[in-house]
Design brief:
The protein has 473 residues and is of the alpha+beta class. Helix content is 35%, strand content 20%. The strands form six sheets. Strands 12-11-15-16-18-17 form a six-stranded mixed beta sheet, covered by helices on one side. It has a four-stranded mixed beta sheet with strand order 1-2-5-4, with helices on one face.
């Protein structure tokens, strides 16, 4: 804690007994003004402190004569700070025209790092020293990121009508269920965005557009997911499925999971001691979901050429996202305890409010543990040429399945489609969960078929998701 500025001789004597330390510096007079300002700089870059002029190094208070010129010299010296520092010297009289000049420095500022005469300083124990270039550059990056992140800047020409109202209301409902937004939050789109910090002074942020936008070209081409199924083990093999979509973050995750659900093979096994068959994907679904969420939340959105990609090969699944690991996070740290360091805190917070993710940096640990329990090798985390790549090694081409089984896969899709239409004919008010249970297909698979049939004009949704009904063309 920063010591209190002494206002009388008794308080001064008590303070001087403590001696110089992390937050207290003695200077014999303003003849050491330059060195005193360096200590001010160190305190600004740390936890704050007091610089006392008129104190000998051994803690003896001898004071100094403080003329108007002395105060002008201090004011002039303060001009050497960048960013600017405003300090008003405090004065404690010792009598006989002698006084102590006190500079009280508050710490923990959003403007860190500070420099004095072009150089940064830091406090180590009772010593002021020049800060290393590496630390200074790191603090500069953190300052720029905290105050002017891509996500908290105004979205280009985006209005409330350009956002997906239903998606925003869905997030509101989920956040209320999770108790991460007030139940009193109105259904006004503007109010919801304000409460989530996604509007600033009535202006929609780029985070809001990423999360809830409806149109992304030509201004936001990076809001894209690429999905591909390649025959063999390289991208040079035949492309069995190739899709790319420009979607908001929530829809992107749903689309990517639906792609994996319909692309990855299901194998059946009978767990020991039971007669119930267990259908298994090659990789635990919760692990895929966690990595996809991380790819969307922590990617670098400043690159207009960036995107999220899911590539499925015969021997592995790769999930790629533009950017690198956040500063201070390395590949080796991901398998052990580590703090969560968010590149896009507004975007991550929206997913946290819905209950989709935690914020404690345990996601990769859960993924690794899920893979081990599943009996497969944990994923490989890498940085490659400006991309974060997560690779799950698993046999994707099932034993006994011939290459060129796309026709079989298509027949399976058609069968599922007919079952869905049949169930809707019987009950137009049926829900996605009821459809999934009735035709023995995952909810995400049902959602994919419904979306495709809506686009084709085969189906039309009348009313809201809850309480509405389906209408067949």
């Amino acid at each position: 804690m920063i010591p209190k500025s002494p206002t009388n001789s008794k308080q001064l004597a008590s303070l001087l007994k403590k001696g110089e330390g992390l937050t207290l510096e003695f200077k014999r007079s303003t003849g050491e003004l330059k060195e005193g300002m360096q200590s001010v700089c160190a305190f600004k870059n740390g936890s704050g402190g007091l610089v006392l002029f008129g104190i000998r190094p051994d803690g003896t208070a001898e004071g100094q004569h403080a003329s108007d010129k002395t105060l002008r010299d201090i004011a002039h010296a303060l001009d050497g700070f960048e960013p600017p520092v405003q300090l008003q010297p405090e004065r404690l009289s010792l009598g006989k025209d002698r006084e102590i000049l006190i500079l009280r420095v508050d710490g923990i500022s959003d403007s860190v790092p500070f420099t004095y005469e072009g150089r940064p300083f830091e406090r180590v124990a009772s010593t002021t020293r020049k800060m290393s270039q590496e630390k200074y550059e790191k603090l500069l990056l953190e300052r720029a990121h905290a105050r002017r992140r891509w996500e908290n800047q105004p979205a280009v020409a985006v209005k409330l009508k350009d956002l997906d109202r239903e998606e925003i209301l869905r997030v509101r409902e989920a956040a209320i269920r999770q108790r991460r937004i007030s139940p009193e939050t109105s259904t006004s789109i503007a109010d919801i965005l304000d409460r989530m910090g996604l509007r600033r002074d009535g202006v929609i942020t780029q985070a809001a557009h990423v999360l809830f936008g409806k149109t992304f070209l030509p201004d936001y081409p990076q809001c894209m997911v690429k999905m591909g199924r390649f025959r063999g083990t390289t991208v040079l093999g035949d492309i069995l499925d190739n899709r790319q979509e420009h979607l908001n973050a929530f829809a992107l995750v749903r689309e990517a999971l639906a792609f994996l659900d319909r692309t990855l093979p299901l194998s059946a096994r009978f767990p020991k001691g039971t007669i119930q068959r267990e259908d298994r994907l090659p990789v635990p679904p919760e692990a895929l979901r966690e990595i996809l969420l991380n790819a969307v939340m922590h990617r670098d959105y400043t690159d207009p050429g960036g995107f999220v990609a899911i590539a499925v090969f015969d021997d592995r699944i790769e999930i790629r996202s533009a950017g690198s690991f956040p500063p201070g996070i390395s590949v080796d740290m991901l398998s052990g305890p580590h703090l969560s360091k968010q590149r896009n805190p507004l975007i991550a917070d929206a997913f946290h409010r819905t209950g989709d993710v935690e914020i404690w940096g345990r996601g990769t640990n859960r993924v690794i543990e899920a893979c081990r329990k599943y009996g497969i090798t944990p994923p490989l985390f890498e940085e490659k040429q400006g991309w974060v790549v997560v690779t799950f090694r698993a046999p994707i081409l099932a034993a006994g399945v011939k290459k060129g089984s796309e026709k079989t896969r298509e027949k399976t899709r058609e069968s599922a489609r007919e079952k869905i239409l049949g169930a809707i004919r019987e009950n137009p008010s049926t829900t996605t969960a009821e459809l999934a249970k009735a035709i023995k297909l995952s909810a995400k698979g049902v959602e994919w078929h419904l979306k495709k049939m809506k686009i084709e004009g085969v189906l039309k949704r009348i009313g809201p998701d809850k309480g509405g009904r389906w209408e067949l063309s």
